[in-house]
Design goal:
single chain, 440 residues, alpha+beta, Beta-Lactamase, Hypothetical protein af1432, 2 domains, 17 helices, 6 strands, binds fe (ii) ion
Length: 440
Amino acid sequence: MRRLVAAFESADKSAHSIKALMETNTQRLLHTFATLADLGQEIANTADFEEMLRNSFHLLLGSFAIRRGAVGEYDRDSGQLRLIASRGLNQSQNASLPISTEHARELASLGSALSLEDSTKEADRFLEDHREAFAGAEINLLLPLVVHERLIGIVLLGEKATADKFTDEDLEVLRILTRHIGVGIHSHRLLEEIESKAEENRRLYDGLRTIYKETVHAFAAAIDIKDRYTQGHSVRVGKYSEIIAREMGWDDDAVEGIAIAGYLHDIGKLIVDLNVINSPDRFNAKESKEMSRHPAAGYEILSPISHPYADIPLMARYHHERIDGNGYPDGLKGDQIPAGAKIVTLADSFDAMTTDRPYRKKLALADVLEDFRANTGTQFAPEVVCAFCRAFLKEIEGTVKEQKLIKLLGKNYEHVERVSPLLSQMISDLDGGAMAAGAR
Ligand SMILES: [Fe+2]
């Protein structure tokens, strides 16, 4: 009887310890599952992804009490299996094992774990073919990671610490766990490829943008060469336009666009009679008519080109329009004129008045500003004149880093600071609307 009780007690203890062992194993498995599921969150970061993969693989080994194993990623191009995680094998992490294309195809079509414990045809062939690669590695189980029928990698596992064979249930759980690893590696590489393609596209786009800008500069130079009295005019108008637009709070892309519009605003002059352009005198009526063709001609030249900034042809067309509607070619009024064209108009006039022409010398700065003051609200947009004055005053007072506008004016204008009071007065009048209202 005592023996029977002892036997019962012993059986009860065993049941308890088996139950405890099962619970521990289940907990470990659940933990491994959770870690593998988290792999998805790290697919965007190579360092974190591989670290997480290593951690989850080590947990997987722990769940099954396996001492040796490795996870390798298969690269079709090089035919190499790069080990991402490795424990207890001769091969160190980051080592590579060669896998022939034929074997990669066979493993991909296998669809299940390849047990090397039993002497099967596939197992024998694999071991024979990879004797050198796996020498001394003591691999018992090989689980191909297959996504969309392609071999992504391989999980290699050694024997269990208990020396028990892997059961069918073990194999099923391992298949599910390693599927997570395969999909994780596949998604991670896919994202890397997409990022690399996006980077390549960015580079191509930047290259195209550079070619576009260089072409624009070449055109600006071509326009200015045709007109020998206004050397560098187009480039300066581009730069003045940029300064004004920046002061008006335009964003970087729009500022880049207005600079290009400035460079190209006179492109229509390419079709104007060379003798008219280079006439040493003021234009007569016939010459004025010929010259006035250039904004519309510029629009015709620029319209068929797809510009990164949409308004460029319109800015060229309307840079001789006036707020009061007395400009050309379309006689647009006020807000009908695009904001960019209003900026180019002022930049164009500023450069025309601050450079020598065959029929007159450049004007004194104060006279240029007085001209702006007199024509604000009729020829020029008040907000553009105000922004120009603010940008100019900031440079004179040294509240901006670069003296871009002053540099463009060159050495021919000394003591620019003398126009500070006039600029301040104009800004104050324009802010209060006096100049615009007075001009109406
Ligand atoms: Fe013009």
